[in-house]
Specification:
Layout (H helix, E strand, L loop, with lengths): L2 H8 L14 H6 L6 H27 L4 H10 L4 H21 L3 H9 L6 H11 L4 H24 L3 H10 L1 H16 L1 H4 L10 H11 L9
């Protein structure tokens, strides 16, 4: 196991396609719910404890070696908005390309063959983490951190926010990231005995609604 792999996987420069997505931040900025650093911090904290917790649980479960196709179905069930399902599979497909080039494995090859249009991104992330020798907890950390680093970086561009403010927000969210990753990894350990219902299923209805609105917006900077 190498912690360097976790740093690489969580690095925003890893070519997994995340730079083209705002994680709902653009829609929140457009609607006036995020206007400044304080609004961004509130947005990120809410995202962490809902959609990010779900993603981290799925990633952690995939990193344990649990059937990724069953987990992909569970991700569909936990993603009611069609726009977000399409985004998750698009990001999963892009991550798969980068992962197979970086950490080739039979498990990644099998998932790519079974889901040629892309599995949900958290599932691919978990299988990638496993292929890189990372633990389920580390997979959960990668998912949780990504859920807030993406919106933070996007908001810097959208609002011309001071990058130092954005980094400070991520630092203040460290305890929340720790908590979400731990909860997700703990839930993943119960899946073999208790089934997929053991995984988090927190909802974020406003993110779902604004994702559908954003998908039909003609002028936008980010894909989601």
């Amino acid at each position: 196991m190498t912690r360097a792999a976790l740093l690489l996987l969580a690095d925003g420069r890893f070519p997994a396609g995340g730079h083209a997505h705002s994680g709902g931040a653009e829609a929140a900025v457009t609607a006036g719910r995020v206007r400044d650093a304080a609004g961004l911090e509130e947005f990120c904290r809410g995202r962490l404890h809902t959609s990010a917790l779900v993603a981290a649980g799925l990633a952690a479960a995939a990193a344990t070696g649990y059937d990724p196709l069953l987990l992909d179905q569970a991700a569909d069930a936990r993603t009611p908005a069609p726009a977000l399902r399409r985004t998750a599979r698009r990001l999963g497909r892009q991550l798969m390309r980068a992962a197979r080039a970086t950490w080739p494995s039979a498990e990644l090859d099998a998932l790519a063959a079974a889901r040629p249009q892309g599995a949900h991104q958290p599932i691919v992330l978990g299988v990638t983490a496993r292929s890189a020798g990372l633990t389920p907890l580390e997979a959960a950390y990668a998912a949780a951190y990504e859920s807030v680093s993406g919106p933070a970086g996007a908001t810097v561009r959208l609002l011309r926010l001071d990058p130092f403010d954005a980094v400070a927000i991520l630092a203040r969210l460290a305890d929340d990231i720790d908590l979400v990753a731990a909860q997700a990894a703990e839930a993943a350990q119960h899946v073999p005995a208790d089934g997929l219902d053991a995984l988090p299923a927190a909802s974020a209805p406003l993110l779902d609604i604004t994702a559908e609105q954003h998908a039909t917006t003609p002028a936008r900077l980010f894909a989601s």
